[in-house]
Amino acid sequence: MSNFKDNDMQAVIGWILRIGVLLSMSVIFIGGVIYLYRHGHIPADYHTFKGVPDFVTTAPALINGIFTLRGRAIIQAGIVLLIATPIIRVVFSAVGFVLEKDYLYTGITLLVLFIILASMLSGHAG
Amino acid sequence: MMSVIVFTLIIFIGSYFAGLLGSLTGLGGGFVIIPLLTLVLHVDIHYAIGASLVSVIATSSGSAAAYVREGITNIRLGMFLEIATTTGAMVGALVAVYIPTNFIAVLFGVILITSAIMSLRKKAEQINQEKNELAEKLKLNSSYPTASGTVAYSVKNVGGGFFMMLFAGVISGLLGIGSGALKVLAMDTVMRIPFKVSTTTSNFMIGVTAAASAVVYLQRGYIDPGLSMPVAIGVLVGALSGSKILVHTTSSGWLRWVFAVVVTFLASQMIYNGFMGKI
């Protein structure tokens, strides 16, 4: 696979970003329709910060919420998918650099992934 | 109090125009969204920042998908500078919790005015071909397609650019915006990269930068699904119509001036309300 070139990487990255945005926005839209259908009439209150509902905070609760067709759980799953899209792009870039035998940039890409992971863990601790 | 459906519709329409203006001027949608949510709809600024961040990821990923195929984006340069922007974004998101909201509002206003002024600058395409040892070692020098064939360029002042990107990352993480104007400034004036390359590469980096702080905000409960849904969809659809309009118009000079006036108004409102402790 030494003939893997920058052009191939560009095509793969473009494809991942497109699919990721399309998929996550569709999920957000479907969740939004369900949410508005079920909760459209209640008053909207975002004036004071209260965090988010419990059923969208942890992975098991979120998955349970998706299967019981809770609108906001489905929206949040779409948002998680959207946030994951550029991160998945970085993962595929790392693979691309390995295929190009560019080990300097494989290292740089892995460092970026490590920083994002550190950010994820530090957010959890705080 | 408004019902959820009316509230969602208003936010969707507002976000559509924010995305449209953000894409036409190149400033991004977050600049209109955060003042709209906080000043007009009295949404808590933490929720506003979370929702804006989600819309930033959607628009930058969507447009990067198109740009990256044209071969103008410098992927290695973007990857290298993402070390700085993601580190900055993580720091910004972590310290945001300890910073008073009125200070965030004032800072937002200041960055907004700075970015608007920079977007009005005359942009002359520059090609730097001076040798730079560090840029060569990091394989940052590249070429890009133009109307008159492929043009090679070199990158200058790698350390300075890297440092500026660290700052751009902190601002992005702190305020929930793409801080594309700061990224372009770093690549344009510090690293002497051709304007087309710096805009597309900046856009390429925005998604990853925003994701690095979004993973923190997600766990802190800043990203509310009910609010983020109309913001993300509205801004993305608005940005898409913006890019369609851009293809059909040759000059957006007058539009930049209109936007500069709107931006100055919004920024002064954010600063005023921040100082008065109303945000």
UniProtKB/TrEMBL annotation, chain A:
InterPro entries documented for this protein: DUF1634
Membrane spanning residue stretches: 12-37, 73-97, 103-121
Keywords: Membrane, Transmembrane, Transmembrane helix
Name the record gives this protein: Membrane protein
Naturally occurring in which organism (per UniProt): Mucilaginibacter pocheonensis
Automatic annotation (TrEMBL), chain B:
Family under the similarity heading: Belongs to the 4-toluene sulfonate uptake permease (TSUP) (TC 2.A.102) family.
Protein's cellular compartments: Cell membrane
Transmembrane regions listed in the UniProt entry: 7-33, 45-68, 80-97, 103-120, 162-182, 202-218, 230-248, 254-275
Protein name (record): Probable membrane transporter protein
Main location class: membrane
Membrane association type: Multi-pass membrane protein
Alphabetic keyword roster: Cell membrane, Membrane, Transmembrane, Transmembrane helix, Transport
InterPro entries xref list: TM_pro_TauE-like, TSUP
